[in-house]
Amino acid sequence: MKHIKWLGLCLVTAFQVHAKPAPVISVDIDFVSTQWIDNLGTFRVVVFNSEVNPCFTLENYKEGTSQGLTSSQQICKVALPDHQVVNLQDDPEGDMWFEDFHWGESSLDFNLNTFNANYNCSLALKNLHQVKKQNVLAQCRLVKSNNKE
Length: 149
What we know:
11% of the residues lie in helices and 43% in strands.
């Protein structure tokens, strides 16, 4: 019986010594989602803690994740219904943030919340690779105004 306990202890110790640490997701990341879209490849959205970085990253793997990254874009700007472009990096108070990300048929949909209003936004993915990085804009529509006029 002593030999069995000793062997058990040796096995547990051996596995602990040779165990490799699991990869750790940064505490700055709030949300990650991946989606395959026909004829466009695999897309991944990485959303950061808005207090650290109000922007999100959109990655595309045209041939799948095993073939390597095709493009990566940091999205900080959206176009409001009045065609005003809002850049969340210009909001040091943190009155604007993105949330509730989900995939459409060929879009990434999410909400923009501001101090004055809430918007539904959609980023078309079809021709994303043809647009210059600084010109990538999601189109937003007003859902609710918080103005008390």
